[in-house]
Amino acid sequence: LTSAQPEVEGALGGRPAEAIDLLNARTPVYDFAAPVMATGSSEVLGVVVYSMPLTDQLLRLLGAVGQGYTPVILANQPGATLYALSGNPADPTLSAETLPSSIGNQLGRSGGSFAGYSTVPRSGDTALALEGMNPNAGPPVLYVGVETPLSLFIGDQTTDELTVVWLALTALLVTWLLVLLFVNRFVRRPVAQLSAGVARIAGGDYGSDIPVQSRDELGVLAQQVNQMRAQIESNIHHVDAAVSRLDEVSRALTTTTAGLSNLESAVCAAAASLAGPHATALLLDRDGDGLVVRARSHSGDDRPAHPDAPPTLAEVDGIELSPAVVADVLDGHPTRLTRSRSDPAEGGASTAEVTLVMPMFYRQRVTGAIAVTGPEPVSDADARALSALANNAAIAAENTRLFEMERETVRRLRELDDMKSDFLATAQHELRTPLTAIVGHLELIRMVWSEADEREKLAILDNVELATGQLSDMLETMIDLSLVSADNLRMNRRPVALSGVVDHAVGDLQRRFPHGLPVDLKVDIPAGLGVDADADRLRQVIRCLLDNAVKFTDPGGRVTISARPSPEGERCIIEVVDTGIGIDPALHERVFERFFQADSGGTRAYGGMGVGLALVKVLTEAHGASVSLESTPGKGTCVRLDWPSRAPSETAAAGDGQVDLTASRQSQITHEPGSVTG
User: Fold this and answer.
1) Could you tell me the domains of the chain?
2) What is the pLDDT of residue 307?
3) Fewer beta carbons within 10 Å, N or C terminal of the chain?
C-alpha cells in the first residue's frame, strides 16, 4: 500500500477511509484504513489498513441470483470503476469496466438502491441493480449489485411482435365467443321466440302469447306484440260479429222479390238481432206526422211479425214514444230513451230498458223508423249498422214497391199481349174464311166475263183482285208474325237454288201489278249459286224486300236484286238496291221494328202496316243470317242479306225437285217499265 491510495490518504487525514483494491492485480479486496493517533493529541502517527477479499462473497451472491446475472462492485471514489466478477467460477477474477453514464449520474444522489440501463462492450444491452453500502451512516463507500442482459426479459423484437399479435387474436377470439354467447342468450333466442310468435299471429293463431323472459327492449317489444295480438283478436271477434250482422242485413235487403211484407219481416228480424238477445224491434211507417207499426220482431220469439191491424206504439211490448220524440225522429234525429219497467217474473222488480229509434231516409225524406228496445244499450258499432240497415231498408222497401208495381204492370201487359194474340188469331181465322170466298167468287166472275168479252168489267175486276191480293199478303204477314211471337214458326231448311227462289218472288210481285211493274227491275243471280234455307220463307223475305223497293221508288226508277258468294265461299251476299226516296240515317235501326212507320205522311202516301221489314229480320235471323241497311235520303236504299251458302254438289245431293241449280240465270232487265224478261 502507498500513501497515494485513496484509503491511505484518507486515513492520514485523520479519518477512516474505505476503498476497493486489487491485490496482486487480480484479487479484489475491501480495504479499510484507520488512522493511528497520538494519545492526547490529534497527530496521526500512522495508518492501519485492513483488507478483506471479496471474491468469495461475490461467488455466494452469484449462487443466490443464479445464472444470467453477473455480480458487480462499484467503488464510490473519484474515477469510480465498476468491477464485475469473471464468468468462470474455476478462476474467479474481477474485471474493471467503464462506469455507465446512467449509473455515474446517480452516484452521490442516491443513498440506497437504484438501477440503471447501459450498453457495455462486454455484454451488450444490460441492466444494473445496485445497493449502496454505508457502514458509517454516511455516503456509500461502495455499491454491490448484479448486471444482466435485457434479452432475458424482453427477447428479440420479432418474438415480441408475434406474442403481441397472438395475444391480440386470442383476446379477439375470446371476446367474439363471449359476444356470440351473449347474442345467442339475450338476442337471438328472444328474437326467434318473438319471430315465431309473430308468425303464429300472421297465420291466424291469436290464442297464445309470446313468452316474456326479460325486461329489456326485446321484452318490452314482446309485451307490445302480445297487446297487439289481444287487440287483433278482439277486433277480429268484433269484425266477425259485424260481418254476421251485415250478412243478416244483406239477407234482409235481398228479399225484394218475396214481397213487401217479407222484406219488412226480414228487416225487423235483422234489427232485433243487432240489438242483442231479449230485444224487440219495430218497423215504423210514416203516417202524416205520426208513426204506425208495420212489423215487429223479438229475439227468440215466434209471435207473428205482422199484426192483423197496425197497433199503436203503446200496444206493442210497451214501447211508448211521446209526440215530441216522434217529431224529433221525423226531423231525422236518432233518439235514445231509457226507462224503468217492473217485471212480474222477477217479483215486480224494476228493470231498465233502453230504446233506440233510428229514422229511415229515402231521397232526403224520413219515410219511417226502426225502433229497438232491450235490457242492454246498443253499442256505437251496432248503432251504425242499424243506421245502415234503416237507410237501406227504406231504399229496399221503395224498390220493392216499385218492383211489385212493375210486376203487376208486366202481368197486365202479358194479359193484354195474350188478348192481342187471341184477337189476332181469331181475326186471322175470321178474315181468311171470307177472303177465300171472295177470291173464289172473283175467279168465277172472271171466267164468266171473259167469255162475255166484258173488257171494262174485267178491268174493274183486276183492281178488285189486286186489292184482294194485298189484303191476303197482309193477312199472311200477320199470321207469320203471330207464329214468330208464339215461337211456333217451323222451317224446313235444305239446300235450294237461289235463282229459282228469286223467280218465284218476282212472279209474286208481278201478279200484284197486272199492268206491269212501274219500275225497271234488274235481276243478277249467278248460275249454280245455292243457299241453305227454307225455300218458302226465303221467297217471302225476297218478296218483302222487292215489294218495299218498288213501293218507295218513283215510277221510272230502277230496282236491282243481285247475289254473289263471299270471299271465303261460306256465305252468300244478297242485295236489293233501289233508287227510291231513301231513309233518314237516324231511323236505320228502327225500320226493322214491328209496326214502325217513318212518319204519318209516308204511311198515307205509300200505305202498309210497317211489318214487312220486321218479318224480314225475324226470318233472316232464324236462318242464322243477318240483314243490314244502307240508305241516303233522295238517293235510294240498299238492303243486304248475309246468308249461309251451300255448294252446288250438296244442293244436288239434297234432291230438291222444285229447284234445279244447273239452270243458268243471268238476267238483264232493260225493258220499259211494266216488263220483265229473263
Assistant:
1) 6-154 (3.30.450), 490-654 (3.30.565.10)
2) 45
3) C
